[in-house]
Amino acid sequence: MEKKQLFLIDTNVFLHDHGSVRRFGKNDIGIPIQVIIELDNFKKGKEPINYCARDVLREIESLPSKQIYDGGASLGENLGKLRIIVGHPYHSEVKKIFPEQTMDHLILNAAYCLNHSKKVKESNTEVILVSKDVNLRLKAGALGLMAEDYQNDKVLDVPSLFGEIRKFEIEEEEITELYTKKHIEFKAREAFFQNEFMILNASKRTALSCFKNDVFTLIKDDLRPFGIKARNSEQSFALHALLDPKISLVTMTGKAGTGKTLLAIAAGLHLMKNNQYEQIYFTREAMGLSNKDIGFLPGGINDKLSPYMQGLQDNISLLKSIKGNKKIIEDYEKSGELKLEALTFIRGRSIPNTFFIIDEAQNLTHQEVKTILTRAGVGTKIILIGDVMQIDTPFIDLSSNGLSHVISSMRGQSVYSQINLVKGERSELAELAANLL
Q: What Cα–Cα distance (Å) separates residue 201 from each residue in 168, 188, 210, 214, 365?
């Protein structure tokens, strides 16, 4: 008899991807009643995580209630059935290892009882617990249960998203023409992405360039937004993308000290000074999103946000120290044109004519980053900054975080550009620490 699979879904899977109910193909899925209870605890609120909980509960409610508690209700054509798992007393074998009946342990108990039930064995069904919680998966292994991570939100070939700038060989006459005309038509002999930055080599000559619509454009190292000069080729590419009005979405990745935040703020200030944007928003994921409450800090909203924004303030202080910048920046701060904004307040808004910088974007989920990007109004430019090697949020990793999803999905789009900064410029000590520790 062909072996069947029954996937038992943990709460965090639904909170991470509200569409996961229908992402298991023809396989049946089971939902322990404890998962329904946990979803109920998350249903109130205005965060993406609350939206996911409500959406999943509505999806389950739309199915015939009698069937979901008795054999399962069909999810549709070419899809399996959904059933809610109830009625399993705490098994003695589970109690031996996990005496405390927490929600996680009750979910494990449901999986254990189901896996050892006579009906499942007779039907040659394999019970697999699906959870984004590595601890729960390890605990499942202690009970001899099969457990795996949720795979449908994984980005494939992650290393290719964060590689170094490509170098490409061209003919001597081509690089001469590029320096003379500032751009050359070029039918690519290999695949390039729109707005891909690269270093062109010809004999002993090199050129910084950007590829778009079969044209290489020369990138000059002469940009000085608010007195900030690029110190390496990747920073030159980043400034070009940040200042290009035709590029409305930029992702900048790289380790600490590579200049991501400083370049973004300097570019935003330069563009606002030239009346290309009405305001600059700067935010980080750490406050307010995904039920990370900021309400226990004293003071008003600016006081609450201040501890999370010290990195911004450090960069602002550096920019103020450059001659001619201090009064302009202070005027922007007083008028509210340079604003600290909590991501928790963004849902449901439309943000036009804004230079919008999101720091620590590697800690966003796929759903959260989608929420941010869909808020962009007319004339808004969004910059996502992050280091995918420093993910602090539970249940997401290198291949499932929102920043990786953006890069994977947006590559090749005419309004998008990605730059991976490699060389640390903060100090020799910072560079050594980033590389050696």
A: 6, 15, 14, 17, 39
Per the document, the length of the chain is 437
Query: Is 291 a residue whose pLDDT tops 60?
Result: no
Quickly count: other Cβ atoms within 10 Å of residue 204's Cβ. Answer: 6
pLDDT digits (tens, 9 = 90+) for 135-193: 999 999 999 999 999 988 888 888 888 888 899 999 999 999 999 999 998 876 668 89
Distances (CA, A) of 433 to 231, 255, 394: 19, 11, 25
Average pLDDT, the chain: 88
Q: What is residue 107's predicted lDDT score, i.e. its pLDDT?
A: 97
Our measurement of the distance from residue 136's CA atom to the centroid of its chain's CA atoms, rounded to an integer in Å, reads: 23
The pLDDT value given to residue 371: 82
- Please give the Cα distance from 372 to 356 (Å, whole number): 10
Domains of the chain: 4-148 (3.40.50.1010), 231-436 (3.40.50.300)
pLDDT tens-digit profile of 350-394? 789 999 999 999 998 888 888 889 888 889 999 999 999 888 888
Does residue 355 contact residue 281 with C-beta atoms inside 8 Å?
yes
In this structure, what token pair is assigned to residue 357? 């910088």
Alpha helices in 244-287 (DSSP H): 260-273
Quote the Cα angle for 39-44-48, to 5°.
80
Residue 196's DSSP bridge partners are 211
Indicate the pairing of strand 279-284 with strand 354-359.
parallel
Give strand pairing partners of 357: 282, 383
With contact defined as beta carbons under 8 Å apart, do 342 and 283 qualify? yes
Q: Which helix (H) or strand (E) holds 433?
A: helix 428-436
Which amino acid type is present at position 75? L
Does the CA dihedral 176-241-387-400 come out positive or negative? negative
Whole-number Å distance between alpha carbons of 270 and 132: 42
Q: Residue 6: what residue type?
A: L
Which tens digit of pLDDT belongs to each residue from 206-222?
999 999 988 999 998 88
Query: Which helix (H) or strand (E) covers residue 351, if one does?
Result: none
Phi, psi of 23 (to 5 degrees): -110, 20
